[in-house]
Amino acid sequence: MRFKKMIPNFVTLGNLYCGFLSIGFAANGQYSNAAILILIGMMLDSMDGRLARMLQADSALGKELDSLADIVTFGVAPSFLVYYTYFFHFGLLGLIVAGLFPLFGAFRLARFNISSTKSSMNYFIGVPITAAGGILALLTLFGGKLPNIITTVVFTALCFLMVSKIRIPSLKEIPLPKYGTIVTAFLGCSLFAIYKGTYQNFPYLIYIATPLYITYLGYRFVKSRKDSE
C-alpha cells in the first residue's frame, strides 16, 4: 500500500530527471533530443497529479516535489536550450537574459502554490510554467527556419505572461490530461519522424514514454466513459 502511494512521486521524479537529461543533451549540442525530453517531462507532469487522485495518494510531499520538478524541467532546461541555440551569440548578456526565464517561472509557481484552491480549480493566473517551457521546446525543435527575432519575442512574451494577471481556463476537469494540444503535437511529430526514418536521432526514452502515455490516454478515456454511464 505504501508503494502504491509513492507511484505518483516516482512519476514526478521522472519528470525532474527528464529536465536534468535535457540540460545534458543541450550542453552536448543535441538540441532536438533536449527539446524532446522536455516534452516527455510534460507527459509525466500531466500524469502524476491524476495518478495521485486515482490512487488516493495526494500528499504535501507530492505537491512540493511537483513544484521542484517543474522549475527544473520547464524553467531551467528550456532556458539552457534557448541559450545554447540562440542567446549564446550575445555572450554573457545572453546567459543573463536566458536566466530570467526560470526566475519568472519560479515566481509563477510560488504564486500558484499559495493561491486558493477554488481559483486554481477554475483557472490559472498567468501562463503555467509547464506550457511556457513546452512552447520553448517546440520552438527549438521546429523553429530552425524561423527568424531568430521570433525566438526572442516569444521568450520575452512568455516570461511576462507567466507572471501576468491574465486568467487562463483550467483543464483539470477535462478527462484527458493537461496540455493535450502540445502532447498531441509531440506524438504526431514522433510518428512523422519514424516515418521519415530519423528515429535514430531521438533518445530511446521516447519509445518507452510514448506507448505508455498512449495507454494512459486510452485508460483515461475508457474510465471517463464508464463514469458518465
Automatic annotation (TrEMBL):
It is found in: Endomembrane system. Gene3D superfamilies: 1.20.120.1760. It catalyses: a CDP-1,2-diacyl-sn-glycerol + L-serine = a 1,2-diacyl-sn-glycero-3-phospho-L-serine + CMP + H(+). It comes from the Bacteria. It is a multi-pass membrane protein. Its EC number is 2.7.8.8. GO terms for molecular function: CDP-diacylglycerol-serine O-phosphatidyltransferase activity. PROSITE patterns: CDP_ALCOHOL_P_TRANSF. It holds the Pfam family CDP-OH_P_transf. InterPro entries: CDP-alcohol_PTase-I (IPR050324), CDP-diaglyc--ser_O-PTrfase (IPR004533), CDP-OH_P_trans (IPR000462), CDP-OH_PTrfase_TM_dom (IPR043130), CDP_ALCOHOL_P_TRANSF_CS (IPR048254). The chain crosses the membrane at residues 31-47, 92-110, 122-142, 148-164, 176-195, 201-219. One of its GO terms (cellular component) is endomembrane system. One of its GO terms (biological process) is phospholipid biosynthetic process. Keywords: Lipid biosynthesis, Lipid metabolism, Membrane, Phospholipid biosynthesis, Phospholipid metabolism, Transferase, Transmembrane, Transmembrane helix. Belongs to the CDP-alcohol phosphatidyltransferase class-I family. This is CDP-diacylglycerol--serine O-phosphatidyltransferase. It comes from Peribacillus loiseleuriae.
